[in-house]
Amino acid sequence: MESGLHLQWPWMGLLLPLPWLVGRFMPAGKMARGSALLVPFFGELLQTEQRDRPPRARFRRIWLLLAGLIWLLLVGGALRPQWLEKPALQPSTGRDLLLAVDLSNSMETGDFTWQGRQINRLQAIKVVAGPFIRRRTGDRLGLILFGDHAYLQTPLTFDLETVATMLREAEIGLAGTRTAIGEGIGLAVRRLRDRPQPGRALILLTDGANTAGTVEPHKAAQLAAQEGVRIYPIGVGSTKPMEVPTIFGSRLINPSEDLDEPGLQEIARLTGGRYFRASDTEVMEEIYQELDRLEPTLSKPEQYMVRTELHPWLLGPALLLLLWLAFISQWRRPIHG
Question: What CA–CA distances, in Å, run from 94 to 65, 123, 297, 299?
Fold first, then answer.
């Protein structure tokens, strides 16, 4: 298909002579009785003609011109004109990559640092994952958020900026306070199973163990393996003891004691992926660089063409003219009594 103006429904142009055909072949008596149904404002034209004969002819011409213009705009809109840009090539690796991010309450733990200030785990993911997403030119990316349940925040798309924005706007507790890892994997499998193989991958970011949902992570991982989805779990949380205040004074705790590393490692093993441990932002950056080196499945660039719909520019003025004619008709109607 060539660039330029394109009519999606050209056969609608057959409607163009319809008013002329009605006026030409419909008997005058029938036309007078049924004109209000064919052209709602045509009856007003007749009333104007009867009220004031000298200005009648002038108004009649104006109204007929406007009626003709409205009809042209309506038929033009019905043709559904589109403007097609020149075809462009979209680089494609053939990879479909989903990010599943844990938004449970524990992600608020502030055991990461970035540029000298303490940040929580979700903030650390946003800081590092944002540039990672923008580097994925040619990949289709999507975003899943999970807490009590899993939700698809962004379907697979080449629009990487949208994915990065949606991740940046994610908030802790948005999907609930608990951790439905199994549901996150299950939702990813459902979204990826229709995509070509190989090239289906899921990056799973969590700081805990499965505590919610109706799907066990082990079962979900087995299903992912059957569907050819590789899973790269990233366990998020510092390995250093963390000092917390208590009513008996401060004490040291393991901030990652709830992280189910054996379970995440098993998920990676079952699906042919790899488990990573992100204990600080530097390590997390290294993990994303490693993920950058995932073997791509090369394919031909996909050709796409941007279409801009033009019919609103025709139907909008037609509607405004119809409203204006209706207003004028009401205004010129004589007041009786």
Answer: 56, 30, 6, 6
